[in-house]
Design brief:
alpha+beta; Jelly Rolls; 2 domains; twelve-stranded antiparallel beta sheet; five-stranded antiparallel beta sheet; globular; binds P-hydroxybenzoic acid; binds fe (iii) ion
Length: 327
């Protein structure tokens, strides 16, 4: 094998409902008309296929994200940036006490290939795991077609900023119609008068207009990048399909409307806080929590990430606080 070899995916022939079953290490995955069934050496778990595919889509698209992606209170992944833990019950007090928890570590390319194949096989025609439930067909039933274009859509990641020549383009009617919930968002763009020769350096764009044209929910995209500082705004409607366990501080700026956050201890799930963020509110989520958001109306949220690779170890070793400021 070379470094570029495609990792093996262990998939069965289609089952009675038409879906392949997947095996990686000691974990086995099966879907039927309504559910995802996960088994591991010490247990079994069942999730609605709707929530499972929405979580799987994000884990795949974000390449295992920062820290922990809990699909629910039992199953999920922890990113070690090169390898990934797949776990069941490991961050659940009851499973731990009963000694039923289990985890296995995989090279990232191996788990990535399995998750990509499962997401593609299990997503049927018309269902878009990134869409608001109000804007997609349902995921239920026997296998009918697929939606490869949706589950492999390109993620926006600006290397400098949206609108800078050669970088991610601003959105227009031709590519991204305004979402039904943001019909009132002004679409004017700023005037920029750059000195001749500085046209590539002095740039600006209307972020509200840009976000009003997003066709996905709960999917932070990188609109600007300055060293490790990433602005990752996103449009939200209904429920964040994962419970995110932080390995660093994250800042939230609520740009419009309102989101309710359930905040729990990252490792045990013990309840820590319920935070209602209204338009204009700013919060820092500590580096030792997990959180899930509820957005009753489509809203705009800016997630500000510090992508420094040394942060998880600095926090684990106690050299850096889990809070960004001490008052
Ligand atoms: C988060 O875990 O911080 C997060 C993830 C996706 C979103 C918003 C926030 O859309
Ligand atoms: Fe988070």
């Amino acid at each position: 094998m070379t470094d570029t070899a495609i990792p093996a995916v262990h998939a069965s022939e289609p089952n009675a409902e038409g879906y392949r079953e997947f095996t990686i290490g000691g974990f086995h995955f099966r879907r039927d008309e309504f559910f995802a069934h996960v088994t591991w050496p010490t247990g079994t778990h069942v999730m609605s296929i709707d929530g499972f595919l929405r979580a799987l889509q994000r884990d795949v698209a974000w390449d295992f994200f920062y820290g922990t992606v809990n699909f629910d209170g039992v199953f999920g992944t922890v990113n070690h940036y090169g390898t990934v833990d797949m776990f069941a019950g490991r961050y659940n007090d009851s499973y731990r006490k009963a000694e039923l928890d289990h985890f296995e570590n995989f090279p990232t390319p191996e788990i990535r290939a399995t998750f990509e194949a499962m997401l593609d096989d299990w997503t049927i025609n018309g269902f878009d795991p990134f869409a608001s439930p109000a804007e997609t067909a349902k995921p239920f039933g026997v296998k009918t077609g697929s939606n490869t274009a949706a589950v492999t859509r390109r993620r926006v990641t600006a290397s400098r900023m949206v609108g800078v020549p050669g970088d991610e383009a601003i959105r227009t009617d031709a590519t991204h119609p305004i979402n039904r919930m943001f019909a009132d968002v002004p679409q004017d763009e700023p005037d920029v008068d750059a000195e001749p020769g500085f046209e590539d350096e002095v740039c600006a764009f209307n972020l509200f207009a840009y976000l009003s044209r997003s066709d996905v929910t709960w999917n932070p995209s990188v609109v600007s990048q300055c060293k490790a500082s990433l602005y990752c705004p996103t449009t939200e409607e209904y429920i964040l399909p994962i419970i995110h366990g932080n390995d660093r501080v994250e800042w939230f700026v609520q740009m419009s409307d309102q989101i309710i956050w359930d905040v729990q201890d990252r490792d045990t799930g013990a309840v820590r806080a319920k935070v209602t963020m209204k338009a204009g509110d700013v919060a820092a989520m500590p580096g030792d929590i997990r959180h899930q958001g509820y957005s009753p109306k489509r809203s705009m949220l800016l997630v500000w990430e510090n992508a420094s690779p040394e942060l998880p170890e600095l926090i684990r070793s106690g050299k850096t606080s889990v809070y960004p400021v001490d008052f």
